[in-house]
Design brief:
Order of helices and strands: HHHEEHHHHHHH
Radius of gyration: 20 Å
Oligomer: single chain
Distance between the termini: 15 Å
Strand content: under 5%
Largest sheet: 2 strands, antiparallel
Shape: elongated
Length: about 240
């Protein structure tokens, strides 16, 4: 992805924070130093700091400069924060946290979708599932269809607060599939579990949809743990 100068500075500094190179409570280099290190103007640095502050990563303090805020203040649902965290995830902890998050949120979303989805939304969920089934021989096409499947279910809840969660699901799923579906041969086993979710939603059976989604994610969690044990760690996104 090509970034403008400000976007590149935001990316570089954000990644350093999420990777622990600058820890909570520590200060970023002073503005003149950042300008020299990054080869950009003061205006670019200031705009980048504003962007990082909006993500909850930093704050300006008198006489101390720009300080990294406590991790509890970071906006983990921000797409860039998620991506930086995933890229810095050397031991797989980030992926495990995201999988726990999905196990909490997505079964409930599937149950709501079963109750509320419109016919057009059901058609989009079906189409995503069929695209998965038709592309088991392609890692990238399968991943794209898989992501669409989960995202469409979140949108079909009819609850706008589920929409921001789609970014977290996207990062989690992309990272998860790098572990559990590294080769096309790994893809077919996932399709029946997804089909169970779709069938339950289309039958308007909320309890069955919740249980089917939980089985699907529990299987992914199990395969992530097996892959982590086998490799002594999980590859980062």
């Amino acid at each position: 992805m090509r970034r403008n100068l400000c976007g590149q500075v935001v990316h570089d500094l954000g990644f350093k924070i999420l990777a622990g190179q600058v820890k909570p409570g520590e200060a970023l280099p002073q503005e003149p130093t950042l300008c020299e290190q990054l080869g950009v103007s003061r205006t670019v640095v200031r705009e980048a700091i504003k962007s990082l502050a909006a993500k909850g990563l930093v704050e300006s303090r008198p006489k101390r400069g720009t300080i990294v805020r406590p991790a509890a203040d970071w906006n983990y649902l921000d797409s860039e924060v998620l991506a930086w965290h995933a890229s810095a995830d050397g031991d797989g902890q980030h992926l495990r946290f995201l999988t726990e998050f999905r196990l909490t949120v997505e079964p409930a979303a599937a149950a709501l979708a079963a109750k509320r989805a419109s016919e057009d939304e059901l058609d989009r969920i079906r189409a995503a599932l069929e695209k998965m089934a038709a592309n088991t021989d392609s890692v990238e096409a399968f991943k794209e269809a898989d992501l669409t499947f989960h995202t469409e279910i979140l949108h079909a809840t009819g609850n706008p607060f589920f929409s921001p969660v789609a970014g977290a699901i996207a990062i989690s799923l992309a990272t998860s599939l790098k572990v559990t579906n590294r080769k096309p041969a790994d893809n077919p086993a996932s399709v029946p579990l997804h089909r169970d979710v779709m069938d339950a939603i289309c039958r308007r059976d909320a309890d069955a949809a919740r249980e089917a989604m939980h089985r699907l994610l529990a299987d992914a969690k199990r395969r992530i743990e097996i892959a982590g044990d086998a490799t002594n760690g999980i590859p980062s996104a």
